[in-house]
């Protein structure tokens, strides 16, 4: 477990750390279907575009950004306004220490405070750690998209998990 974990709203100065953590997954895992690393400037623009309704957070351990999480707009169609997609990424140096769970708990709390009705998690089927975190926090599997991604020379399934968080 982590003793000195602090989760706070991301600022533009966090873009380099966020990019570094994300790019670990881009280059070495199927946790994201991005195949090209993101630049620091792209991450700054991404943070800025998220705004108050769909915030980005960072988790710091002893002052170092060790992970990040975000609520992202599910669709620009009006009927989906109360639905958001969750995502979290943890630096390879900090995995397996409860950071992902802490970030997802935070997203659930913020999602309720922002009056979302449903939070979604889309997770590649070969990511048991993320699946475990989400299921242990009450997300339920509600569908599988077969072979919708292709990375590292193979097709990949994506599991759709959801949690109704409305107060």
Automatic annotation (TrEMBL):
Keywords: Acyltransferase, Transferase. Residues 5-157 form the N-acetyltransferase domain. InterPro entries: Acyl_CoA_acyltransferase, GNAT_dom. The lineage of its organism: Bacteria, Pseudomonadati, Planctomycetota, Planctomycetia, Pirellulales. The keyword Transferase applies. This is N-acetyltransferase family protein. PROSITE patterns: GNAT (PS51186). It comes from Roseiconus lacunae. It comes from the Bacteria.
């Amino acid at each position: 477990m982590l003793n000195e974990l602090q989760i706070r709203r991301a600022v533009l100065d966090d873009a380099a750390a966020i990019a570094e953590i994300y790019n670990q997954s881009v280059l070495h895992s199927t946790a994201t279907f991005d195949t090209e690393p993101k630049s620091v400037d792209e991450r700054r623009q991404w943070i800025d575009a998220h705004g108050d309704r769909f915030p980005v957070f960072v988790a710091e351990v002893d002052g170092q950004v060790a992970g990040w999480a975000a609520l992202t707009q599910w669709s620009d169609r009006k009927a989906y306004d109360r639905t958001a997609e969750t995502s979290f990424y943890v630096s390879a140096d900090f995995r397996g220490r409860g950071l992902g769970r802490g970030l997802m708990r935070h997203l659930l709390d913020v999602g309720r405070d922002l009056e979302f009705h449903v939070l979604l998690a889309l997770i590649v089927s070969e990511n048991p750690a993320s699946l475990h975190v989400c299921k242990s926090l009450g997300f339920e599997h509600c569908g599988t998209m077969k072979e919708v991604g292709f990375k590292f020379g193979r097709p990949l399934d994506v599991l759709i998990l959801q949690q109704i968080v409305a107060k």
